[in-house]
């Protein structure tokens, strides 16, 4: 960055001041000592012919004394000098007030004189910009931003460091309205902007009256401020000893009621000063902003002020009526603040804010999450109601610790979302459920289309049904759901009543049974096929695939890997789930008839479902076996299944002695006893656990025998459910933030709502520029930069998920924490609270909703 222009400017100023100084020495009897201060308004108004003859001020802070060699101008030095000069200008205000007190009668004459002073015409900004206006109008953050823009521009010329501010996390609780991005230069810059600016041109229009005796006595010599000493200490009328200055009673405060006010130039959104747009502000609604009040009157929480010597002016944000949970009322709300709060609403969105007082509401009637029925967005945005005023922050605190304070290498996205394994499982299921075969030759059947064959083995086993069976995934055009279709190839229906038996299976709604929806025959495949429509469980596999799949033996260091031993708890889990399924089936007067590993689906970890139920009822409808027999056979098949799985052998039941020995060695006697009970055709003892008198063997008896294991499995299921619920709660946070992001993106940089289009229902003044670039939208845009577009000290993007979530959570909660927003040209700093940001989001979004409603969309 070039600073030549700045140097040139200051050098011109020096030369000008030197020639003017010579001129003044010739024409006036002023002392040669330079007192680098800006004269007060009253001083300038003194009816002195001498002052009229002083077209430029050698009192300019940037000008050296007459005999001083001009020091080389370094950029850094010039910045500091400007700051100090501004400080000195500020000191002069003290004198000006006292001078004014002593010379009240001169003021009118001074005004006349100023108008005729040519220097005033040269620099009209000087006169207008000389009043520090810390209250209404000038007190808005926009105005301060304007001041700061002037200062910051100067700063950026002098300090071309990459992105001095945006890479910082500006979670400030400071009550200063606007701060420079360079804290060290802040005070000087702000003062420079306020009291004449560092450019020097503003100071040329200031006359340099000879100091009055009292004024000189009260004023610290500016040469000492700038050069560290004053060559004319002996003759110079100003104070050179800081200790004396401190004793001066006028130093008790730097501003008083007589201090001239400052009306800054208006900031435009692109960072330039636009004198003509004085009436416009960054936020049009801020035109009604409240006065500044010292922070100390409102809250105890504050950060160290950047200007400790001055009463820290503060943006007094809209204090709206606020929902406070009764339980936390005393902790959360300061009654003074509440009372103060009701006075003012700068953003005036109160039409959608219910009247809630801190004490007058009941928790039942106020729901911070409730939708405002008056807003159309309520139907699809949670809490889309008008700003409900910061509901208690803690209400949004998600389950579990928040790892926002972690170092970069400690942060992982996993910390914020569901566990990886679960996410992967769900995503796999979704992906598999969507699988289609392009240009598939499989025809649609009835309402089912997009058939996808789930059978991966070409070898068909006719032993179970007597027919080749195929399983397809298909989508129903009736309801859009995905189903599994089991097709029995070349099935000929001889008895129509047989297929009606499927009706009874439709009523079996059990968690361990794959639900059957319908059965029909079709010729769509070119044959007569029987189709069973069941629930589709994506990414599931059969127990046969899980436990009996042939896998190449792994060898570790020459030793053969031990075969996979199925844990006993897994077997008990299978037993309990299948017992539950049989209870439902038998209780409905049906029998499963097919409990075999290839017809039991493993839909998630240790979660099984009895599949292919009801098929044998259709294809073997003419069987002579009684229901009791079939149900007893179900128990037998269950025992055989567990025995085979425990032995890792599909034919373990063919060698009972060996298999039971294996069970004896590998499992508890309890499991062995259970398996034996199931496998015995008609046990001599009544229950699987206790030798009681002989009873009829049925599922109820079995359930009674395994009650203890059912309780254990039930408890573990409850724990699993709790875990999933907690995971769901975390995802709930994510979905809440997604809604917030959607709103932000609806608002940010929206192109079509420009000045020519009045936003219906907008209560503020008509926008003076692009809707998306003015008012709340402007600082929402800066907020987006703050959240997503931060860069580090090297200008590299910061991709800190914790920061993003942190900011969005605070925005959603409308926290009172302040955040410093930096304009893209880094010339402005706006300090707003998350509460104001939230209000801006809601207000802007409601503008959009109203506009959409009016256009009938
Ligand atoms: N309802 C269903 N939902 C999802 N996938 C299923 C469903 N029913 C079966 N499958 C899958 O279809 C595939 C084939 O099932 P099938 O019952 O034909 O097993 P199989 O091993 O082919 O048995 P068989 O040897 O008797 O043909 C299996 O991978 C199974 O996971």
UniProtKB/TrEMBL annotation:
Query: What residue spans carry the Basic and acidic residues bias annotation?
Result: 146-156
| GO MF annotations, alphabetized | ATP binding; poly(A) binding; protein kinase activity; zinc ion binding
* Pro residues bias (residue ranges): 63-72
Binding residues annotated for ATP, in chain numbering: 486, 535-542, 598-599
Which intervals carry biased composition (Polar residues)? 258-277, 294-306
UniProt lists compositionally biased (Basic residues) regions at 122-134
Task: Give start-end positions of Low complexity composition bias.
Answer: 73-102
Known PROSITE patterns for this protein?
PROTEIN_KINASE_DOM, ZF_C3H1
- Compartments, record wording: Cytoplasm
Which PANTHER family does the record cross-reference, listed alphabetically? DEADENYLATION COMPLEX SUBUNIT PAN3, PAN2-PAN3 DEADENYLATION COMPLEX SUBUNIT PAN3
Question: What this chain does, per the record?
Answer: Regulatory subunit of the poly(A)-nuclease (PAN) deadenylation complex, one of two cytoplasmic mRNA deadenylases involved in mRNA turnover. PAN specifically shortens poly(A) tails of RNA and the activity is stimulated by poly(A)-binding protein PAB1. PAN deadenylation is followed by rapid degradation of the shortened mRNA tails by the CCR4-NOT complex. Deadenylated mRNAs are then degraded by two alternative mechanisms, namely exosome-mediated 3'-5' exonucleolytic degradation, or deadenlyation-dependent mRNA decaping and subsequent 5'-3' exonucleolytic degradation by XRN1.
Q: Which family does it belong to?
A: Belongs to the protein kinase superfamily. PAN3 family.
Q: How does it assemble?
A: Homodimer. Forms a heterotrimer with a catalytic subunit PAN2 to form the poly(A)-nuclease (PAN) deadenylation complex. Interacts (via PAM-2 motif) with poly(A)-binding protein PAB1 (via PABC domain), conferring substrate specificity of the enzyme complex.
Q: What name does UniProt use for this protein?
A: PAN2-PAN3 deadenylation complex subunit PAN3
| Gene name in the database record | PAN3
């Amino acid at each position: 960055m070039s600073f030549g222009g700045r140097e040139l400017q200051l050098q011109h100023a020096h030369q000008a001041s030197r020639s003017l100084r010579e001129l003044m020495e010739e024409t006036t009897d002023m002392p040669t000592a330079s007192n680098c201060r800006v004269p007060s308004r009253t001083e300038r108004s003194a009816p002195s012919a001498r002052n009229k003859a002083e077209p430029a001020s050698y009192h300019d802070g940037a000008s050296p004394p007459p005999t001083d060699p001009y020091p080389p101008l370094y950029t850094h030095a010039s910045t500091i000098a400007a700051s100090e000069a501004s400080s000195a200008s500020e000191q002069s205000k003290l004198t000006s007030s006292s001078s004014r007190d002593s010379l009240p009668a001169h003021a009118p004459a001074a005004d006349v004189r100023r108008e005729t002073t040519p220097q005033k015409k040269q620099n009209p900004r000087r006169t207008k910009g000389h009043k520090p206006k810390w209250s209404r109008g000038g007190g808005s953050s926009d105005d301060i931003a304007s001041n700061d823009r002037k200062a910051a521009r100067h700063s950026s010329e002098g300090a071309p460091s990459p992105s001095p501010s945006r890479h910082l996390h500006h979670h400030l609780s400071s009550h200063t309205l606007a701060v420079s991005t360079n804290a060290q230069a802040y005070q000087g810059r702000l003062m420079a902007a306020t009291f004449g600016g560092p450019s020097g041109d503003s100071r040329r229009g200031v006359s340099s009256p000879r100091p009055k005796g009292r004024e000189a006595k009260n004023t610290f010599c500016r040469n000492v401020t700038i050069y560290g000493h004053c060559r004319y200490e002996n003759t110079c009328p100003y104070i050179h000893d800081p200790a004396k200055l401190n004793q001066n009673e006028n130093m008790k405060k730097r501003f008083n009621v007589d201090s001239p006010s400052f009306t800054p130039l208006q900031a435009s959104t692109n960072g330039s000063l636009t004198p003509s747009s004085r009436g416009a502000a960054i936020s049009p609604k801020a035109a009604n902003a409240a006065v500044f009040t010292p922070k100390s009157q409102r809250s105890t929480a504050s950060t160290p002020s950047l200007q400790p010597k001055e009463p820290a002016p503060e943006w007094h944000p809209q204090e709206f009526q606020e929902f406070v949970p009764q339980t936390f009322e005393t902790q959360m709300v300061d009654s003074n603040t509440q009372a103060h709060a009701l006075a003012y609403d700068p953003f005036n969105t109160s039409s959608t804010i219910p009247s809630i007082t801190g004490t007058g509401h009941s928790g039942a009637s106020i729901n911070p999450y409730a939708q405002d029925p008056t807003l159309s967005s309520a139907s699809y945005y949670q809490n889309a109601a008008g700003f409900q005023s910061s509901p208690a922050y803690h209400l949004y605190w998600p389950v579990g610790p928040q790892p926002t304070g972690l170092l970069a290498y400690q942060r992982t996205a996993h910390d914020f979302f569901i566990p990886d394994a679960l996410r992967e499982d769900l995503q796999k299921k979704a992906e598999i459920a969507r699988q289609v075969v392009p240009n598939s030759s499989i025809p649609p059947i009835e309402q089912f289309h997009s058939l996808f064959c789930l059978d991966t083995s070409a070898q068909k086993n006719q032993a179970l049904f007597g027919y080749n069976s195929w399983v397809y995934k298909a989508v129903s055009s009736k309801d859009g759901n995905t189903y599994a279709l089991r097709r029995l190839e070349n099935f000929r229906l001889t008895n129509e009543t047989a297929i009606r038996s499927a009706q009874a299976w439709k009523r079996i709604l059990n968690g361990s049974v794959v639900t059957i929806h319908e059965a029909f025959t079709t010729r769509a495949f070119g044959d007569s096929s029987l189709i069973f429509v069941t629930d589709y469980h994506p990414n599931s596999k059969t127990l046969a695939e899980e436990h009996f799949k042939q896998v190449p033996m792994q060898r570790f260091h020459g030793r053969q890997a031990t075969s996979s031993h199925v844990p006993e708890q897994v077997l008990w889990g299978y037993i309990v789930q299948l017992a539950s399924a049989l209870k439902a089936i038998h209780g409905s007067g049906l029998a499963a008839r097919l409990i075999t590993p290839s017809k039991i689906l493993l839909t998630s970890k240790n979660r099984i479902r009895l599949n292919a139920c009801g098929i044998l009822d259709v294809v073997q409808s003419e069987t002579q076996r009684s229901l009791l027999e079939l149900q007893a056979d179900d128990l037998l098949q269950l025992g055989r299944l567990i025995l085979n799985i425990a032995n890792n052998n599909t034919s373990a039941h063919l060698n009972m002695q060996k298999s039971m020995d294996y069970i004896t060695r590998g499992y508890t006697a309890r499991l062995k006893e259970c398996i034996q009970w199931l496998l015995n055709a008609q046990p001599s003892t009544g229950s699987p656990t206790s030798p009681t008198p002989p009873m009829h063997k049925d599922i109820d008896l079995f359930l009674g025998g395994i009650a203890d294991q059912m309780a254990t499995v039930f408890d573990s299921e409850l724990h699993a459910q709790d875990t999933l619920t907690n995971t769901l709660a975390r995802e709930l946070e994510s979905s809440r933030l997604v809604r917030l992001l959607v709103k932000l993106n609806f608002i940010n940089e929206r192109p079509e709502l420009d000045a020519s289009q009045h936003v219906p229902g907008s209560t503020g003044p008509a926008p003076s520029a692009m809707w998306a670039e003015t008012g709340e939208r402007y600082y929402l845009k800066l907020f987006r930069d703050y959240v997503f577009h931060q860069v580090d000290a090297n200008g590299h993007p910061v991709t800190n998920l914790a920061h993003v979530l942190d900011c969005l959570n605070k925005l959603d909660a409308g926290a009172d924490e302040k955040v410093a927003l930096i304009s893209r040209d880094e010339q402005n700093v706006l300090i707003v609270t998350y509460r104001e940001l939230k209000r801006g989001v809601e207000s802007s979004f409601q503008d959009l909703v109203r506009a959409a409603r009016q256009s009938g969309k």
